[in-house]
Amino acid sequence: MTLAMLSGRGIQSALEPAGEHAERIASLWDVFLGVSAVVYVLVIAFLFLALFRRRREDSADRSRSAFLAVSISTVLTTLVLFGLLVSSIVTGRRLAQMPAHALSVTVTGRQWWWQVDYESADPSKRVTSANELTIPAGVPVRVQLQSSDVVHSFWVPNLHGKQDLIPGHENAILLEASRPGVYRGQCAEFCGYQHAKMALWVNVLDPKDYERWIAAERATSRIPATPEQRKGQEIFMSSPCPLCHNIQGTDASGRTGPDLTHIASRRSIAAATLPNNRGNLAGWILDPQHVKPGSFMPPMVLEQGELEPLLTYLESLR
Amino acid sequence: MNVMEGTPYALPGATREHEELTRTWAPASGLLRWFRQVDHLIIGRRFIITAFIWFALGGLLAGLMRLQLAVPENTVLSNDQYNQVFTVHGITMMFLFAVPIMEAMAVFIIPLMIGTRALAFPRANAYAYYMLLFGGMMVYTALFLNMAPDAGWFNYPPLSGPAFSAGKRVDIWAELVNFTEISALTVAVEIIVTIFRQRAPGMSINRMPLYVWAMLVTSFMIVFAMPAVMVASNFIGLDRLVGTHFFNAAEGGDALLWQHLFWFFGHPEVYIIFIPALGMVSSIVSVFCRRPVFGYTAMVLSLVATAFIGFGLWVHDMFATGLPQSGESFFTAASMMIAIPSGVQIFCWIATIWLGKPSFRPPFLFVVGFIAIFVIGGLSGVMVASVPLDLQLHDTFFVVAHLHYVLIGGSLFPLLGAVFYWFPKMTGRMMNERAGHVSFWLVFAGFNLTFFPMHKLGLIGMPRRIYTYLPETGWGPLNLLSTAGAGVLALGMLVYFGNALVSMRRGALAGADPWGGATLEWATASPPPAYKFLHLPVVHGREPLWEGPENAPVVTGVSTKKREVLITRTLDAEPDHLYVYPGPTVWPFLAAVTTGSMLVAGLFTPWAFAIGTAALLVFMTGWFWPTTKKKEGEAPPNEGAAAA
Amino acid sequence: MKRLLAAALALIAILSSCEREERRFREMPAAAARNNTKRLVSLVPGPYTPDVRVREPYGYNAYAIAEGKRLFTWYNCTGCHANGGGGMGPPLMDSRWIYGSDPENIYATIVEGRPNGMPSFRGKVPEYQVWQLVAYVRSLSGNVPRDAATGRNDHMQVRTQEQSLPDLVPEKEPARQP
């Protein structure tokens, strides 16, 4: 539903900046676009003039004026390019600055999802999540970028340009969102079978809401309260699920798949491919290869009457 | 009958010479004649046709891609199929079509344009053609066997490395590069030597047509750029098959090494595709405005400057990889600077049009279309040259738009114009002009409809190389428009090539010089006889045919009984010595078959290289076996005795 | 002779590439299969019938073997078997197969578990992934076609890449008594 509300509203657009860096880039874009439009109109105008001008019969040698015209055009071109170069470098320097940042997040690119680790000086306050990045508005957040397998690229156009995640390299990008909102990002470097569906959501919260959110994330998973949830947890633990997934506070401690401790608090599943609701969750668990063929989640074989409790349990993991 | 009658260099009473030359320069005959040709007209024609076949196949794949992306969550292609399709589309266009077609046109035209009877190293030329043919056959066979490369035409590791690409698919990519780069390098060397040492006497280096300059510059770029990608592709082949660690960070390699090596080739590659087109534009503008191109020196210097600067841009494909800011800024400056020589050329052409009398026939229309489209591509190129902008635009459909504007606008449009322009020289018939006009407008409109919306798509967040997208992104309508445009573009191409195919049989007969050309290729019959020029011309200016060729001097002393070629000096084209060129032979074909088999089988067993090298040694021995003085260059009896 | 063999292998390899290059993402999740294991004894009632040949789907599929390699780490087989050299568990890249080298035997080993420490992965690893692991384990001793076997890891070099491992014929030793 969130997706439907946000559809077509520039939630993954470089033209609707919602962060400081994206705003600078958008301004630079306006300059380049304006200059390019003028240049193009001039070139086409001269071309058309040359093509269609009335040619009188005089054979006066116009080469000198042609030489002048070409030389002036060349000089003008050089000056314009130089101006664009300067504005580009100035903007680039501002973008590259990495001021003191309040928050540090590590994003690890994996085929075909994003592992998000919220760092903290206190180890007990570190949080591991997946596919959604929640940050406070108005606060510079340094995102450390690394890859566990192939080259990916982290790109949230409303907030900043992209930066690659390269195995063996440590890259970083600074995000500073101007105001609360929800923005979509997508992997921008071809990374295999499901490159097309490796997206992520960035939730920008008011700083106070952020504090509340991160406190909730730091808590271990909710203990199942109802009999159905308990049954669901049993089904989870006896299925292949714990071999890949981690639910903090339980015996499920697999690290190869996304962390599910607070799965129900996320707005999407399968790396922003499906909205997170009961029906989609069921479809994803039973037949992930239908949604993302080639992804590493295998289909689950569940007995009659096992699916519903499992879903209830997963929905309780807020 | 004197076939040369009506051409500027025909001389009365030349019938005996014509018969002797026809016999001497006769193409191969007999059962195996297809495998034995070495003449540049024949090989050039094959080269052109084969390259256009790869173009058609690559275009079909593009059509499939557009169908898949027309609507969100489409099911025309699966993700695995789409990955293979977009990869093969890219490698077809970049490796199998764009560079080979430019070289192929040069193989046909350059010797005619500089007034000589052969391309240097004719047997190597045949070998290069077969390598292109076999390389393309390998890739398309692989596509049908579900083993086409699927990691993108740029093939980045670690994805393309042994750990993340199973099977032989990426190995096919590595081998294809070997095929096409061997082919391209061979032809480049031939072109350089031909241009430097075989020009007509009097065609000093500052009297060479601009197209010849363009091909010379391009060939040098090929020589310096292609080795980088051969190195890279062999590195990835070694990583995958032998277990080396070039791109394995854990053992001291680096995934970025690939990117540097590849783009050091990749950026000059697009200028290798672009610069020949600039030469074609100069030829067409000159003839269709009835005056030499304005600013010859500036044009030549611009070509050379573009080539040099083109080697200093490659990091602009890597702006998002985390390289230091100041380093990246250098490449921004260079990437913007290269617009200056291109700008100079455009200004000079506009000046030429202004000063001349333009005639709006199809070749000239394609040139006007080139200017209109290429300038957009150049401007979007200046945008992505800027690091901050590129951080948003890199790897999005904006770049897809940019690259197609510069490659299709900058290279394909001039090529289509040049094919129309030189068609009479190649086939002896004219392409239909009305169909030419129709095809131009269809291609122009279809191209813009297809690719202009992609600028917007990139800006609103659509990345490249995705097999589908969600409806909520809102990218559907522009993609549908783009697919519709692709249909129009395809129709335009069909009309154009249909025109060409039909005109080959039923076009109006063209004389030696249907357009009133200025350069030497129009001084011989259409199509040229096997000996190209009855009398080798001597030139005194840049536009030989416009400078009163009726009493033009010709070269004497070149034997008509041997395949003798006049070698002249590099700078001032003074005659230096005579050299006898080889006639038809089957060794190049055998060598190419051996090389090709060795490369393909090498993917499966290292024994292929051992056996292949041994076989190649045998065939190269046959190739270089010296013939006796008596047999050298003598025409085989009874070959090609065409009616005089 | 060897060269002829190499040439013949190359020809077969090229001709049967379809199977090698298949990427089958959607395997049907099978219910507990009946005929996925071999008999443990050769004594049968009634007339002798040979063992049903089990369908081993992945012996020649490069993608499946590569998946098996990935799963070998992800399911922590390396914890006991290291990268084929063994540790707490026996080595997998030699010619000694305690419980048999046929794909069905390896399948049974993984699914049922074995005495002295091999866990049972029944219900924990989907069936088609067990077959992918089977194919990979066999590749560790060179028992899959060379052009389908995987290349080197993207990690520190732990041993020769699988496609260069020597072909080891399984020893004809009877199963060890527990």
Number of DSSP helices of chain B? 18
| Oligomeric state of the chains in view | heterotrimer
Give the biggest beta sheet of chain B.
2 strands, antiparallel
Fraction of helical residues of chain B: 55-70%
* SS content category of chain B: mainly alpha
- What CATH calls the topology of the domain at 59-150 in chain C is Cytochrome Bc1 Complex, Chain D, domain 2
Computed over alpha carbons, the radius of gyration of chain C is 17 Å
Principal-axes shape call of chain C: globular
Low-confidence stretches of chain C: 30-34
Strand residues, percent of chain B: under 5%
Largest sheet of chain C: none
Q: What is the CATH superfamily classification of the domain at 59-150 in chain C?
A: Cytochrome c-like domain
Q: Which class best fits the helix and strand makeup of chain C?
A: mainly alpha
Secondary structure: number of strands of chain B: 2
Task: Please indicate the percent range of residues of chain C in DSSP E strands (runs of 2 or more).
Answer: under 5%
CATH architecture title of the domain at 59-150 in chain C: Orthogonal Bundle
pLDDT < 50 runs, ≥5 residues of chain B:
634-644
Please trace the helix and strand order of chain B, writing H or E for each element.
HHHHHHHHHHHHHHHHEEHH
Radius of gyration of chain B, Cα only, in angstroms?
25 Å
- Rough outline of chain B: globular
Largest interface: A-B, 84 and 79 residues
Q: Please, could you describe this protein's structure?
A:
The complex is a heterotrimer of chains A (318), B (644) and C (178). Chain A is 37% helix and 18% strand. Chain A is an alpha+beta fold. Chain A folds into two domains: 1-214, Cupredoxins -  blue copper proteins (Immunoglobulin-like, Sandwich); 227-315, Sandwich (Immunoglobulin-like). In chain A, the strands form four sheets. Chain A has a five-stranded mixed sheet. A three-stranded mixed sheet of chain A has the order 4-10-9. In chain A, a hairpin with an 8-residue loop joins strand 6 (152-154) and strand 7. Chain B has a two-stranded antiparallel ribbon. In chain B, helix 4 (79-114) packs parallel to helix 6, helix 5 (122-144) runs antiparallel to helix 6 and helix 6 (169-197) packs antiparallel against helix 7 (210-241). Chain B is globular and about 75 Å long. The termini of chain B are close together. The relative contact order of chain B is 0.13. The model of chain B is unreliable at 634-644 (pLDDT under 50). Chain C has 178 residues and is mainly alpha-helical. In chain C, 33% of the residues lie in helices and 0% in strands. Chain C has helices spanning 2-15, 17-21, 62-74, 78-81, 103-112, 127-139. The longest helix of chain C is centred in the first third of the chain and has 14 residues, at 2-15. Chains in contact: A-B, A-C, B-C. Chains A and B meet through helix 1, helix 2 and helix 3 of A and helix 4, helix 10, helix 11, helix 12 and helix 13 of B.
